[in-house]
Design a protein that fits this description.
Layout (H helix, E strand, L loop, with lengths): L5 E8 L7 E6 L27 E7 L4 E8 L2 E10 L8 E6 L4 E9 L10 E7 L3 E7 L9 E2 L5 E5 L10 E7 L2 E6 L4 E4 L12 E3 L22 E9 L2 E8 L3 E6 L4 E7 L3 E8 L8 E10 L6 E12 L3 E5 L4 E5 L4 E6 L3 E6 L3 E5 L9 E5 L1 H8 L7 H12 L7 H13 L7 H10 L6 H6 L2 H19 L3 H19 L2 E7 L4 E6 L3 E6 L2 H8 L8 H4 L5 H34 L6 H14 L8 H28 L2 H15 L10 E2 L4 H33 L8 H30 L10 H5 L8 H9 L7 H6 L3 E2 L14 H17 L8 H14 L3 H18 L11 H17 L5 H20 L3 H6 L18 H18 L3 H19 L10 H18 L3 H10 L3 H17 L17 H13 L9 H11 L3 H18 L5 H23 L7 E2 L21 H6 L1 E2 H19 L12 H11 L3 H11 L2 H20 L5 H7 L27 H15 L6 H12 L7 H8 L16 H10 L3 H16 L3 H7 ...
Parallel strand pairs: 1-28, 2-6, 2-10
Antiparallel strand pairs: 1-31, 3-4, 4-5, 5-6, 7-8, 8-9, 9-11, 12-13, 13-14, 14-15, 16-17, 17-18, 18-19, 20-21, 21-22, 22-23, 22-24, 25-26, 26-27, 27-28, 29-30, 30-31, 32-33, 34-35
Helix pairs in contact: 2-10, 3-7, 4-7, 6-7, 10-11, 10-12, 10-13, 10-14, 11-12, 11-14, 13-15, 14-15, 14-19, 15-21, 20-21, 20-22, 21-22, 22-23, 23-25, 23-26, 25-26, 26-27, 27-28, 27-29, 28-29, 29-30, 30-31, 31-32, 32-33, 33-35, 35-37, 36-37, 36-38, 37-38, 38-40, 38-41, 41-43, 43-44, 44-46, 44-47, ...
Length: 1468
């Protein structure tokens, strides 16, 4: 029968019913009520289990509400309960009751009329398969906590097996308020007054039996005539009495009066297998009760049928029921019957694949069936599941359109699929969660629900891109697989459960597994497009636009042509067209139309041929042939194309959104009905848009083949200049409506959420809590925001808002809404372009900046298309307002977290919009007329008489706006633009600008400086400083300039040639010096170094040196508080600073090479130490020259060297401080530094004294080391010694802060410095040798040290005389320290050398006083030898030395005697 039915309505999903939070309540059970078997295990099932999904709805009258319950066959022990109210927001949560045993496929929920306690507004009756009946007193949802135990005091529990035998299974159950009725397999019926009276009270249980008035216990009464098992039951209330209708398996239909417990009707139907029973609402006019029975005919068990019966009733002295003999049989050809509802005039039959309705009529022959489209068909169409080739067509057309830019194809296709996937009604949270899980994306369902529309897009797109990357699949194949899986999961999670019918309003809905929906009537265009074109003559509104019946026939033929034409690429192409308009198009809509028409004409796409494309090619060629024949036939019927075009124009007027004058003043609130209105708007706008699009393609195709179908030039001109622009206007308007209906709202921004919320027309208690959660979700589109501003004119707007209205009511409200969008509240908008401004204001006011931008951009593009040959600027300033508003939208988006590229583009576009807005026709009057409550930033000024004054004020406003959003680029541009208007604007005496020209320009240049500085454009910022005519402002900016350069690390720019500092050098130097004095000395970059570089760049050498010395001084004062490591770094900086100062002064003429001392007098130079300038102490207080800087450099170097070995020292200026410093340096092995100190600060005898001290200290350090003889022999540096250890006698005890160097290094150091500095003091070798011998008399003096005494004695003609360090000195030391052997050997060596001169040198030896020997010391040596011999010490050795010494002396004296005689003879 479904094939013969007429489409009468469509399903409209209630958006958001798929995201409930379920509060789970475990229902307790008394152990005494759990039936058990003999062996102690649970008893067998005695009631029918749930084998199919079941759901139903109970409609409450007061308060108006819909209570929906669901039992899933996969979770039979769970019952879900949901409360909906058409006039309220969709609830956040529902109740999920978990019972201990599986439930029967039955539940009854009603208003609590037993106790009428407001705490328990509802009652719930259920029966488990074990025969336990429950009565739950339900509180409000807010009273329950998640995962809680249902309160036992709110629960009544009844085990029916306590009253009946458990050997007879229960086959049916029904209930009403205060009564539960069960039917059993033996045909018996029993009712329990559960919750009304106590279970032990008389009258609690009654058996319904034939003997009226008799009421006895269940098992003790006779049951009269036997009937079949109870198949189904239903309770109906009639004139205040409740009757139970009982259907038995043998076809017996009985009616029992529950008040008297008597049977009032009995009728038997035979010849079939009976399944279900439904009782309709009684008709008081005809005194009939409609009743339907589902059965299977005996001849065909697979064929289900429904028989409609009418039971006549007469309530007089006694209740009389009789069966009307007429029966209306309805055959269910395909599909399983799920639910049936009967109203006063219709029967609604829900099958698993469709919903049909039949009128209740006595004329059985003329029963007409009406079908209602389910959401499955819509979702399949949107996801390209209706045909396996639809997705392929998307790719083919996209490749053909973007042939010049292939890289745009993939993102464009993904954008289309993403938009389809997230459409309201298509997007389903559970389905998407299941699909993602199949791709191993295990995102928690709660997290998925919390994602915004953009978040969902990113999640899905990342999955697709991963699939393409990992599996090497094409993007199209990945999308096809994903959408196929998603559609499968959508159908699985939206399985049909039952009907929702409100008889009082004729509202019909559908209860699905995880959603709820309502049905609506068809709009007229849907009757034509999706119904039958034969219905054209029945549409009064359309017929009125046609002149006669012939035009009506022409329209019918024309519609058939267009529909046939659109079946090829129309729907696919419309998706591409829609996406190209909403996204940034790289190709115009005209090019898209031309490309698609070309494909339809030629029957080919850009891709290479394959089997499928060959089939498509043949199909298109067949279409071309059929279209040619159809158009020829149409032309012959109309006789002229002009008449056909007139019919087209008439039909297009039918597509124009209706204008409804809305005089009512009733606000539309945000509720469930609003959701239905919005989705209905989307469904209608989609059909209207696609219809207009099909006509546009058809006309474009018609123009291309015009010559083949006798289309004249005038006809083509009329199509191109009249009909096509009209079509484009219609397409644009419906596209905008569709855009509002499906575009998700943007999430609320934190900074302006509170201000936006206060302006919404929503409930102040619940709305404020829900608003922020709704924004950004896929199911909360822009249309919801607009709907809050609508004042409805629907005549059924009153009490019906509390209930779901009838099907036609949603169409009426949808028309109101569409009329308000396009024409405004009063219908006064002449065109949508002016109306778009008002809508954009609303969107902006509610934080939908991107949507407002898209709306204005689409309006702008459409305007450009309309007015290509004339100015697009209206005289009333509308164009200026659009540009102004567009700039505000772009600017507001910048604050919403855009990445850098997008942000820069938005800023650039906003700047352009504001400049264009200020220069348009009527800009001043139009923009100043905008009130403060429109939602955009308020201008806040008025009264600008001249254009220059207006622009000055407007540019300053724009500058402040960009500054408020911290967008310096735009603020800077508008500040510069305002500067251009100052002179002209200030000429006007009535200008609203306060202050003089200088003040105004100074303020603007200061702003330019600030903005340029924020952008890092330092050159521009400096130019703004120079250009500022206000001196005070200029210097304030200069100070700020220096501070910012310093903070940003760009201060070095002052030392380059990039900034012309003419006239500002001193000021810059002052600011830098002021900043340097007040800045942390360790801050980077260092301002003193910058001042040094700055002055060097200016060739001011002395000032450069002065700043570096100031830097050194500050470092010295702050070093005391630092640790060793920090002190070392600061000392290094001091050295660098002093070195730079010295180098700078070397560039100055010596007469001017000085600097002034620091003002705080903290210089090291103010302290006393030995210098050559002690005679002039006053000069040190007046200037600092190079010598003083060098002295301080040396002292600082010493301090730095000590800090490296963790020795802290500071010059105190006391006597002996420098000597102590030298000693400290030596003790820490800093010998070079020690000698540098001595040579720098000591002269004459003081220098010799200090050199002796230092070398003595180094010598003592050598004595403290133990040196191996092997090392000595190898290097030949020490005299050979048999001793391995050297003992120090009488040496001073010293403390060393660092480990001493090894022996080799120490002796080498002594040798180096002794040889280097003996020229300054000739006795240094003597001092060293004496120190060594004093420390250890037995030490072997190094050979190199002994050689120092013998230098200059090679010829040995002078004996042992010579320089201060001569052999005699060494001989005396040997004798003094008991080194007699070495002394004897040295004397013998000298005597022998003296005697063995060359013959040529003898004459020189014979001169007077030519030779000298230390005879006194020689005598001491002889005396010491004799003493040792006398004492018996080393007698043999001493005798030997003595003999050798005496022998040598005798020979020497003889030689001297001869030389003396020779000298006397020569002299005489």
């Amino acid at each position: 029968m479904g094939t013969d039915s007429t489409l009468a309505g469509k399903e409209v999903p209630i958006i958001g019913t798929d995201v409930f939070r379920w509060i789970e309540l475990s229902v307790p059970s008394s152990s005494s009520n759990i039936p058990t078997a003999v062996d102690g295990t649970n008893a067998t099932t005695i009631a029918p289990p749930t084998v199919d999904d079941r759901a139903s709805c109970f409609v409450l009258e007061d308060p108006s509400a819909y209570l929906i319950w669901r039992i899933h066959k996969l979770q039979p022990h769970v019952l879900e309960l949901l409360e909906l109210n058409a006039s309220k927001e969709l609830p956040k949560a529902g109740l999920r009751f978990i019972f201990p045993y599986p439930l029967c496929p039955f539940a009854f929920v009603c208003k609590n009329e037993i106790s009428r306690n407001s705490r328990f507004p509802y009652l719930l009756y259920v029966l488990t398969v074990t025969g336990v009946a429950y009565l739950l007193k339900i509180r409000n949802v807010s009273a329950y906590a998640s995962s809680a135990l249902f309160p036992a005091e709110d629960l009544f529990e009844l085990n029916v097996c306590d009253y009946v035998s458990n050997h007879v299974p229960i086959t049916a159950v029904t209930a009403t308020a205060g009564c539960v009725v069960i039917g059993r397999s033996d045909g018996s019926v029993c009712c329990f007054r559960l919750g009304v009276i106590d279970t032990s009270a008389p009258g609690f249980v009654h058996e319904l039996r034939d003997e009226a008035g008799v009421s006895r216990l269940w098992g003790l009464m006779s049951r009269g005539k036997m009937v079949g098992a109870v198949q189904d039951m239903e309770i109906s209330e009639l004139h205040g009495k409740r009757f139970v209708f009982v259907l038995h398996s043998d076809g017996t239909l009985r009616i029992w009066d529950l008040s008297s417990h008597s049977r009032v009707f009995n009728h038997t139907v035979t010849g079939a297998t009976f399944r279900r029973l439904w009782v309709g609402q009684f008709d008081p006019d005809s005194s009939t009760i409609p009743l339907s029975i589902l059965y299977k005919h005996g001849l065909d068990e697979e064929l289900e049928m429904i028989s409609l019966h009418s039971i006549l009733y007469n309530f007089g002295e006694r209740n009389v029921f009789s069966m009307d003999p007429s029966v209306q049989n309805i055959t269910l050809e395909e599909g399983q019957c799920l639910d049936v509802k009967i109203t006063l005039d219709k029967i609604w039959i829900l099958k698993d694949d469709e919903l049909v309705s039949h009128m209740l009529t006595t004329n059985v022959e003329e029963v007409e069936a009406f079908s209602y489209a389910l959401q499955e068909e819509v979702v399949a169409d949107q996801l390209f599941q209706s045909s396996e080739h639809q997705a392929d067509e998307i790719l083919q057309i996209a490749c053909s359109i973007f042939s010049s830019s292939k890289e745009d194809v993939v993102p464009f296709i993904s954008s289309i699929f993403l938009r389809k996937l997230l459409l309201p009604g298509v997007h389903h949270n559970a389905a998407l969660h299941a699909t993602l899980a199949e791709y191993s994306r295990h995102l928690p369902e709660s997290d998925l629900q919390a994602l915004t529309a953009d978040g969902l897009k990113q999640e899905v797109l990342s999955l697709i891109e991963h699939e393409v990357g990992s599996e090497k699949l094409s993007i199209l194949h990945s999308w096809k697989c994903f959408l196929t899986r998603y559609f499968h999961n959508w159908c699985k999670n939206n399985a049909i459960y039952g009907l929702l019918v409100d008889s009082s309003t004729d509202a019909v809905g559908l209860i699905r597994k995880s959603s709820v929906s309502i049905f609506r009537s068809l709009e007229d265009i849907e009757r034509i497009v999706e119904g039958s074109s034969d219905e054209v003559g029945e549409l009064t509104g359309l017929v009125d636009l046609l002149d006669d019946d012939l035009e009506c026939e022409i329209l019918v033929e024309l519609l058939r042509c267009v529909m046939s034409f659109s079946q090829q690429l129309g729907k696919t192409a419309s998706s591409i067209f829609y996406e190209s308009v909403l996204t940034a198009p790289v190709i115009s809509s005209e090019d898209i139309v031309h490309c698609i028409v070309k494909i339809l004409e030629t029957g080919s796409c850009i891709s290479g041929p394959n089997e499928k494309e060959l089939i498509d090619h043949k199909s298109l060629r067949k279409l071309s042939a059929e279209m040619f024949l159809s158009l020829q036939s149409l032309y012959r019927k109309a006789s002229a194309w002009s008449r056909i075009l007139n019919v087209i124009q008439g039909f297009l007027k039918f597509l124009v959104p209706q204008k409804i004058i809305q005089n009512f003043d009733t606000e539309v609130s945000s509720n469930i009905s609003s959701s239905i209105i919005v989705h209905t708007t989307y469904q209608i706008s989609k059909v209207m848009f696609e219809s207009a699009w099909d006509f546009l393609l058809f006309l474009s195709y018609l123009v291309d083949i015009g010559g083949q179908v006798h289309l004249s030039h005038d006809d083509i001109t009329k199509i191109q200049l009249e009909i096509v622009p009209m079509l484009q206007e219609i397409i644009f308007e419906w596209l905008i409506i569709n855009f509002f209906a499906i575009t998700p709202s943007a999430p609320a921004t934190t900074e302006d959420f509170n201000s936006k919320l206060s302006s919404l027309h929503i409930d102040c208690n619940t709305g404020k809590q829900l608003w922020n959660e709704k924004l950004g979700r896929c199911d909360f589109t822009l249309a919801f925001i607009l709907l809050l501003n609508v004042r409805s004119s629907s005549t059924d707007h009153g009490h019906l808002l509390k209930r779901f209205p009838n099907m036609q009511s949603f169409i009426n409200r949808m028309r109101d809404f569409i009329s308000w969008i396009i024409w405004g509240q009063s219908g006064g908008s002449s065109n949508f372009l002016s109306r778009s401004i008002d809508l954009a204001f609303i969107l902006f006011k509610h934080g939908q900046y991107e949507a407002a931008e898209q709306l204005l951009m689409m309006a702008e593009a459409h305007l450009l298309k309309e007015k290509t040959s004339q100015s697009i600027q209206e005289s009333d300033g509308g164009w200026c307002i659009r540009q102004h508003l567009l700039g505000c939208c772009l600017l507001a988006q910048v604050q919403c977290g855009l990445h850098t590229t997008q942000k820069d583009n938005k800023v650039f576009d906003a700047i352009r919009c504001f400049f264009r807005s200020s220069s348009g026709n009527g800009a001043s009057e139009a923009l100043q007329s905008l009130s403060e409550d429109v939602g955009i930033p308020y201008l806040g000024f008025s009264g600008c008489a001249s254009t220059a004054a207006w622009k000055l004020q407007y540019y300053q406003w724009a500058m402040q706006l960009f500054e408020r959003y911290s967008i310096s680029e735009g603020a800077c541009q508008f500040a510069l633009a305002a500067l251009e208007q100052v002179d002209e604007a200030m000429k006007d005496e009535n200008n609203p600008v306060n202050g003089s020209i200088t003040t105004t320009r100074g303020r603007l240049w200061a702003n330019v400086f600030i903005f340029a500085l924020d952008l890092g454009r330092y050159y521009d910022a400096y130019c703004a400083i120079v250009s500022n005519p206000d001196e005070e402002s200029k210097y304030i900016c200069l100070r700020r300039f220096i501070i910012v350069l310093y903070e940003q690390g760009a201060i070095k720019i002052l030392c380059s040639n990039k900034l012309p500092l003419i006239g500002l050098v001193e000021k810059v130097e002052q600011e830098l010096a002021w900043k340097a004095e007040r800045s942390d000395i360790s801050a980077k970059p260092n301002l003193y170094k910058l001042l040094y570089a700055f002055q060097m760049h200016q060739h001011n050498w002395r000032r450069a040196a002065n700043y570096m010395y100031m830097y050194s001084t500050r470092l010295r004062t702050e070093a005391a508080s630092k640790d060793y490591q920090g002190s070392s770094l600061m000392l290094q900086e001091r050295l660098n600073a002093l070195s730079a100062a010295i180098n700078s002064l070397h560039l100055v003429h010596p007469a001017y090479a000085w600097i002034d001392p620091p003002a705080n007098g903290s210089s090291l130079l103010g302290e006393h130490y030995p210098t050559d300038n002690d005679a002039e102490p006053e000069r040190w207080q007046s200037c600092i020259d190079v010598e003083k800087l060098e002295n301080e450099f040396v002292l600082t170097s010493a301090e730095y060297k000590l800090s490296l070995v963790n020795v802290k020292w500071t010059f105190s200026g006391k006597d002996g401080a420098l000597s102590d410093l030298a000693e400290l340096l030596v003790n820490n092995n800093l010998y070079d530094m020690a000698f540098t100190i001595l040579l720098r600060f000591f002269k004459g005898s003081a220098l010799k004294r200090e050199l002796e001290r230092v070398l003595s200290a180094i010598s003592l350090r050598c004595c403290l080391d133990k040196v191996e003889s092997t090392w000595v022999e190898e290097h030949g540096q020490l005299v050979t010694s048999s001793k391995l250890e050297m003992v120090v006698h009488g040496s001073p005890v010293t403390h060393h802060t660092t480990p001493q160097t090894d022996g080799s290094s120490c002796w080498a150091t002594l040798k180096i410095y002794l040889e280097k500095y003996k020229e300054f003091h000739g006795r240094l070798p003597v001092i060293v040798a004496e120190t060594l011998l004093r420390a250890d008399p037995q030490i072997e003096l190094p050979l190199w040290l002994v050689q120092l005494f013998k230098e200059g004695q090679k010829e040995r003609m002078s004996g042992m005389s010579g320089r201060e360090s001569n052999p005699a000195s060494l001989f005396q030391l040997y004798v003094s320290y008991g080194r007699y052997t070495e002394a004897t050997n040295l004397l013998l060596e000298c005597i022998q050398s003296f005697a063995s001169v060359r013959p040529a040198d003898i004459i020189r030896r014979k001169r007077s006083f030519a030779a000298w020997f230390p005879y006194t010391t020689i005598e001491r040596l002889l005396y010491q030898l004799e003493e040792l011999t006398r004492k018996g010490h080393m007698v043999e050795q001493c005798d030997k030395l003595k003999r050798m010494l005496l022998s040598s002396l005798q020979n020497h004296l003889k030689t001297l005697k001869v030389d003396s005689e020779d000298a006397i003879s020569v002299s005489s």
